[in-house]
Amino acid sequence: MSEAAELTRSVLEIGCFTGYSALAWYEGTTSTKAEIITLELDQKMIAASRRTFDKYKLNDRVKLIEGPAQESIETLTGSFDIIFVDANKEGYVGYVKQILDKKLLSSKGFIMCDNGRCSLFHPTLWGDVDIGGTVFARGMTISTEANPELPEKVRPYWTENGKALRRFNTFCKNDSRIDSILLPLYDGVTLIKWKSSQQDFIQLN
């Protein structure tokens, strides 16, 4: 990952939260002075992010676009070497499909999607991998049988996230343009890249 950052000239982040992930991209790309564009809808998170950007003096390379991610993505041009998605889980399919359709991912770039392990299974390059038949979140299984201590007030939220991410992982498996793999880190990170057959096409266009 550090080698990839050293070659990165542009980063797109969908979901800024408090701005510290943008800080990580900023510090990880000091050698290339990568442009970092981050998208956020929530006004509280926007305010927190701007405080982070001011505190650590990031505004020379970080641009925050306010508003719904789908609308913001539609305005973007060019391509990005790293795209980080950590937003509303029901939006993952739409965001990644939009990125691919608009060819916003560079030919050798990759998309990182957080929380990929929240699905019931993950379709990888080697086929469907069953990860226990339950939904994962914050290191816990969501099913009542496997995790009876999970508070009932948060179970519906994480269950719906799990369903959304299963739909997302199924999308990744079935889209013929891309390869994807799940890294079992914390809640899981799904990495997506163009298939080699698509890379040449992207470079030519």
What's the mean pLDDT score? 84
Share of β-strand residues: 25-35%
Number of strands: 11
What's the main sheet like? 7 strands, mixed
Strand order of the largest sheet: 3-2-1-4-5-11-10
What percentage of residues falls in helices of 4 or more residues?
Answer: 25-40%
Please identify the structural class as seen in this structure: alpha/beta
Number of DSSP helical runs: 7
Principal-axes geometry comes out as globular
Whole-angstrom Rg: 17 Å
Low-confidence stretches: 120-135
- Sequence of secondary-structure elements: HEHEHEHEHEEEEEHEEH
Through-space gap between termini: 26 Å
Write a structural description:
The structure is a single chain. This protein is α/β, with parallel strands linked by helices and 205 residues long. 36% of the residues lie in helices and 27% in strands. The protein has helices at residues 2-6, 20-28, 43-55, 69-75, 92-101, 155-174, 196-204, and strands at residues 10-14, 35-40, 62-66, 80-85, 105-114, 121-124, 127-130, 136-137, 140-141, 178-183, 189-194. Strands 3-2-1-4-5-11-10 form a seven-stranded mixed sheet, sandwiched between helices. Strand 6 and strand 7 form a beta hairpin. Helix 4 runs parallel beside helix 5. The longest helix is centred in the C-terminal third of the chain and has 20 residues, at 155-174. It is globular. It starts with a helix and ends with a helix.
